[in-house]
Amino acid sequence: MSIFEIFGFALRGVAANKLRSGLTVLGILIGVAAVILLVAVGNGSAKQVEDSLAALGTNTLTVQGGRGGDTGYRTDLTLDIVKALQDRESAPDVKSVSPVVSTSQTLTFGDASYDVNAVIGTYPSYFSASNSVVAAGSAFTEEDVDQAARVVVLGPTTAAELFGTVDPVGQRVGIGGQIFSVIGVLAKKGSTGFNDPDDVAIAPLPAVQRALTGYGPVSSITIEAVSADAVAAAKAEITAILNTKMHVADGTSSTPYQIRDASQLLETRTATAETFTVLLGAVAGISLVVGGIGITNIMMVSVTERTREIGIRKALGAPRRVVLTQFLIEATLLSLAGGGSGVAAALIGANFEIVGIKPVIMPDSVVLALGVCVAIGLFFGSYPASRAAGLRPIDALRYE
Hints:
By secondary structure, the chain is α+β, with helices and mostly antiparallel strands.
């Protein structure tokens, strides 16, 4: 008997009970679609993190103060340190240095008010270092810093919440009871999943200190390296300057500052996203195993129902391999039908956001899912097929 004839018998066997075969296919479909979609959600989460961190600046380093005393978080960063970091001879790999003070304030415009996530006081170089692009109006200048001009650039979230459809540029807003003029609105960056970088108001450092925070140490220092390849060198130069200015002894394990760069954040959050993806895939994989058990049950029922048919075929000379091959093909056909339908369902589902994440389907996950389907068909169908092929004709013919 040729393989095509065996394949025909297998097709007729699958079609003999459409409802039972359909339920088996549905179980595999759910498992495959779940695996592909949940892995795609994990990949989408990782991509979202990468894109968001890239939007925050890949050449950027952030210096923050350490902890000390009983007062909790305390910064020892001063404008003298900022000036030292701006020395091109001591730090040739540093492109710009931007001191930052930050405070949460309520913004008002007419009868509207909005609690902005952060009012940032800084230098004009901060816009480049943090990859903050001005979409409307303009950024403030060094002259605005020198004059402590009360001008502000709003993030798109802040502008939308406070002004709605009104053009913010040229309007006057209250920040903590002080009047600032809006001179620009930033382009949208998008959420990192932890906070909204678009919910900000950026103004000249002296103006924010004079009107809102008072003079004193800065909250942090944002530093831009000359290139992505120079980040490590810039970090070493910054460390040497900080150790000198803050009187840190050589070999000290604990320092009153921290230096963070985008690559560290990217590695940490990407590793978290990858772990999340593996866990999602493992959970979804359980449904594939359940589908495989379903195939075993269905094929066992099929063997039991067709015992006399098997006995007749073997009595007429059908060899063991023919019966074994037929039932393995039936199991594999059910798996492939479920797998193909599951892939189609996953591709359709990937067009929609899931828990706020746009799934990113990887071709590898599709190939793996289909490969697992074939393996499930062969593995879980092997026992029923072997049992069918091992039936003695005389016993099968006696079966009622």
